[in-house]
Design a protein that fits this description.
573 residues, mainly alpha, three-stranded antiparallel beta sheet, 6 strands
């Protein structure tokens, strides 16, 4: 009775409700029996559904589209299978409709030539979003419902045209990428041109940090970006120099106009004070130190001529001559080598006994620059000039592939660089200072290498002393087989190694001969090993007597005094 009751509840349509699963599929739930089913219960089926005797079952997606599933073959299709169509009387109706549609299609054929058919098939590939990297099976799912899919009659023809289309698409994509990269480089150059932080001293790293988020920046390879940047900066630097040359005249005129307008600036003002007054002015800062100084000297020269007319000619000329005379003393001292860029004012006064010089006394009581001021200005000019000349000399030496060693001479250095015309304009004292600096550095490197070589020779001789297999009759080739795996053996050059070994073996032979003379063997016929053993185990008394004899041959060793000590260690062993 209970089973019958359950069956009745299952057959009651009121107990069943339809629901949608989270994956979009529909299912049915019986609130009375608490049962759920993917299949539509028989009591809810329509007459057409009840008449379905095939394996196909009809379902709906979440968006309401019908699809059909065969649980036997596990196949699912969107279009109603032919078996269901026959059951529902639709197959015959569709066939008649297809025949009616086929007649006008045959009358008006869309693609007349093979080229048009291929073009139509290529068009459907492009329109349906087929990618060049897709497989034929993936592309087939996208295009098979389109009418242009049938522009080609056979599957083989479609696959062949698909392969051609893929090749053409990949070629077209590469061309497009090439064009994009070319355009990206043009965009990079344009961005650099309008970059607000662009300077002659800017580096590639700064540009990369400024533009790394731009799409065109990401399209360019790192090496290509660097090359584009360097080419742009070379051209920019060239243009900047040309523009600066054109603008220099205008800025010099502006600065000289400020000299005229500023009441605190006169021809007797010190250059250092003038710099302090105009340090914040944009036009003054635009000029380099040398350009600003030149503009000042030109202005002073022009205004001094004007002041000559308004002031006492005698007093003015006296002050100028006194300063020129003192400058001449400074210049002469420099040419004689008594005044250099590192000379201090106190030492210069003491060494030159300057207070007694007429040029020094002639400036006492004058307005404007003092002797110390002129000295400081001269030293500053020497420092700037020395730096410029040193950089030029190093540049010329690098271009000439010159390497200064400890054995190099200034005459060679000077003669080689004299082939460069610009080098002849540099003072000899400056050239000598630069050479001495390079020469001292080379000597220091040689001394370091010599110390290392000396240390290696010492280790090599110690290695011979510690090796008992090396005797007076051991050859170099035998010793090499015994010791070449030791790092002390390879640390010494071949010639030096042979020389040290020869001296060491000669010393052993001398010791062996001395023992044969002083201590005859106890038995005749003792082998060479007894003689060599005696040489290495010499009594202390004989060792002291023969110590002086060992020193003479060992002094010829490249290692100096070390071989003497090494032989003593060998004896103790």
């Amino acid at each position: 009775r209970s089973c019958a009751l359950v069956a009745d509840m299952a057959e009651d349509p009121k107990n069943w409700t339809e629901h949608t699963h989270q994956d979009g599929r529909r299912y049915y739930y019986n609130k009375a029996t608490k049962a759920s089913s993917w299949d539509k219960p028989p009591c809810l089926k329509t007459d057409q559904e009840k008449a379905n005797t095939t394996s196909w079952k009809e379902y709906k997606t979440a968006d309401g589209r019908d699809y059909f599933f065969n649980p036997v073959t596990k196949a699912s299709v969107w279009e109603m299978p032919i078996e269901l169509k026959r059951l529902r009387g639709l197959a015959q109706q569709e066939e008649s409709e297809d025949e009616q549609e086929r007649e006008p299609e045959e009358e008006e054929q869309e693609w007349k030539t093979p080229e048009e058919r291929k073009a139509a098939f290529h068009a459907v590939l492009s329109d349906k979003g087929v990618k060049a990297g897709m497989k034929w099976e993936e592309a087939l799912k996208l295009i098979q419902e389109d009418r242009r899919f049938n522009a080609l009659d056979s599957a083989g023809a479609r696959k062949q045209e698909f392969s051609i289309w893929v090749t053409q698409s990949m070629k077209r994509q590469k061309e497009e990428e090439r064009e994009k990269k070319k355009q990206a480089k043009d965009d990079f150059v344009q961005a650099l041109t309008t970059w607000k932080d662009l300077k002659v001293s800017v580096r590639y790293k700064d540009a990369a940090e400024a533009f790394f988020e731009e799409e065109w920046f990401k399209l360019i390879e790192e090496d290509d970006r660097d090359e584009v940047f360097q080419d742009f900066m070379d051209e920019h630097e060239k243009k900047s120099k040309e523009e600066r040359r054109k603008q220099r005249k205008d800025f010099v005129e502006k600065v000289q106009a400020m000299y005229d307008e500023n009441d605190k600036i006169t021809v007797t003002s010190r250059w250092r004070d003038v710099q302090d007054l105009l340090r914040e002015d944009e036009a003054f800062r635009w000029l380099s130190k040398l350009e600003a100084l030149t503009s000042w000297e030109e202005w002073v020269g022009e205004n001094e001529k004007k002041e000559v007319q308004s002031k006492s000619t005698l007093q003015f000329r006296h002050g100028r001559r006194a300063r020129d005379a003192f400058r001449a003393v400074l210049k002469e001292s420099h040419e004689q080598g008594k005044l250099k860029a590192d000379t201090t004012w106190r030492n210069f006064l003491r060494d030159m006994d300057l207070t007694e010089h007429p040029a020094y006394g002639g400036m006492i009581g004058l307005h404007g620059s003092t002797q110390h001021d002129l000295f400081d200005d001269f030293i500053e000019e020497l420092g700037e000039k020395y730096k410029e000349d040193r950089a030029k000399i190093k540049k010329y030496a690098k271009a000439a592939a010159m390497i200064v060693t400890s054995s190099s001479t200034f005459e060679w250095f000077d003669e080689t660089l004299s082939k460069e015309e610009a080098y002849k304009l540099i003072p000899k004292d400056t050239s000598r200072l630069v050479f001495e600096s390079l020469h001292a550095k080379a000597k220091e490197q040689d001394e370091t290498q010599e110390k290392l070589a000396k240390k290696n020779r010492k280790k090599f001789v110690e290695l011979l002393q510690k090796t008992r297999e090396v005797t007076a009759k051991t050859t170099y080739d035998v010793a090499e087989k015994l010791l070449r795996s030791n790092s002390s053996w390879d640390a010494v050059e071949e010639d030096t190694r042979r020389q040290c070994f020869s001296i060491f073996v000669d010393q052993l032979k001398i010791q062996t001969a001395s023992r044969k003379k002083d201590e005859a063997p106890s038995e005749e016929g003792e082998g060479d090993e007894a003689a060599d053993g005696a040489a290495k185990k010499k009594p202390k008394k004989v060792e002291k007597e023969k110590g002086k004899k060992r020193k003479e041959p060992l002094e010829e060793s490249p290692g100096g005094e070390e071989p003497e000590k090494k032989v003593k260690k060998h004896k103790k062993k």
